[in-house]
Design brief:
- The chain is α/β, with parallel strands linked by helices.
- Helices cover 39% and strands 18% of the residues.
- It contains 15 helices and eleven strands.
- The longest helix is centred in the middle third of the chain and has 14 residues.
- The chain is globular and about 65 Å long.
């Protein structure tokens, strides 16, 4: 898009003086990109951007962390995890704290590292902390597929996998005032943009699929402002998102996973909002069922932040006992978390 059009869009967003509009992005990468690009400072204060429940680390309940810690303390067992999750506290401690106490916890950068580690060390049971949304679930399905192909028996997954449409319904039906959604680009690339078109009709709200550059996000916000809270759908990320999505990814997910109810940190059980390993492949599950208990630190308001009820700075712990260096709530731990980005970039 020519620079002059972006400049015009930015000018109109900055000068907007109508009724307050509350727009929610439901993608952790969007949250980080909005913060890093200083988008909030570029638009009118009457356009309020809210970070929704799109950070996978932020919505993982404490029971999952506790189970991972339990496994990591078992003899000849190693828990594999990504960087952010290692610092999220369970009911008593984090995986990082457990590792300091002698637990066998290893950070990895790719799920496929689990395949190679377990193949090279068959005497150790490896458990991969499989968290995420529709974007990462295909990778975990490929892990199972590859483990079967290589006849690897010492690799399991502890899953906390979520799906986006159901939590969006929950946010709206729970009474949170949202006037439009910046739909997640990565998720849409897998599911197809049509799911957000259907949600728009069902919820009578506008949805705009966006990419991740500052310019793309400004265009998505402008499109939502122009839609004035009326139902409608636009795909502004056509370079990556089609209406039908990635059929191959969905096929391999459906081979190894099935829909399930899922618990979300601070929000409780949301029907049909998760994916779990199918019973016929249960040998790859490390005990993911019935991990529903959730213990938020006293005073933590993460759930209210990610549903738009309060801003991060309204949490009594924010910037005091809870900072990125001493995070109490999951939203302050993850680089995709709303509190982290608000604190680091003063969103």
């Amino acid at each position: 898009m020519p620079d002059e059009r972006i400049s015009l869009i930015a000018k109109k967003l900055k000068e907007y003086d109508g009724e307050e509009i509350r727009l929610m992005e439901v993608c952790g990468t969007h949250t980080a990109a909005i913060s890093e690009n200083g988008i909030v400072s570029m638009i009118s204060p009457k356009i309020r951007l809210i970070s929704g429940p799109g950070c996978p680390v932020c919505v993982t309940v404490t029971a999952v962390i506790d189970r991972l810690i339990e496994l990591s303390m078992a003899e000849k067992t190693c828990v594999l995890t990504f960087g952010d999750l290692i610092r999220v506290r369970g009911s008593n401690k984090s995986l990082a704290e457990a590792r300091a106490d002698g637990a066998n916890v290893r950070m990895v950068y790719s799920p496929m590292e689990g395949i190679n580690l377990s193949e090279k060390d068959p005497d150790t049971a490896y458990v991969f902390a499989a968290i995420g949304f529709e974007t990462t679930t295909p990778v975990y399905a490929l892990m199972i597929d590859e483990a079967i192909r290589r006849n690897i028996k010492n690799l399991k997954l502890l899953t906390s996998l979520k799906t986006m449409p159901e939590v969006i319904r929950w946010v709206v039906n729970d009474g949170c005032k949202i006037d439009g959604f910046i739909a997640p680009g990565h998720v849409s690339a897998v599911t197809g943009g049509h799911i957000f078109c259907d949600l728009s009709k069902e919820l009578d709200l506008p949805f705009v699929v966006s990419g991740f550059s500052g310019e793309q996000l400004l265009c998505a916000i402008y499109a939502l402002v122009k839609m004035s809270g009326r139902a409608g759908y636009r795909n502004l990320y056509k370079s990556a998102v089609t209406e039908e999505g990635n059929e191959k990814s969905r096929q391999i997910v459906n081979k190894y996973f099935e829909p399930s109810d899922a618990s979300w940190r601070g929000m409780g059980m949301i029907q049909g909002s998760g994916m779990r390993i199918r019973q016929e492949y249960f040998e790859f599950d490390a005990g993911s069922y019935n991990l529903d208990e959730d213990f938020a630190p006293a005073g933590c308001r993460c759930a209210s932040v990610i549903t738009g009820r309060i801003s991060p700075h309204e949490c009594p712990l924010y910037g005091k006992s809870c900072t990125p260096d001493n995070a109490h709530g999951a939203c302050m731990v993850s680089t995709e978390g709303s509190c982290y980005n608000y604190y680091v970039n003063r969103r």
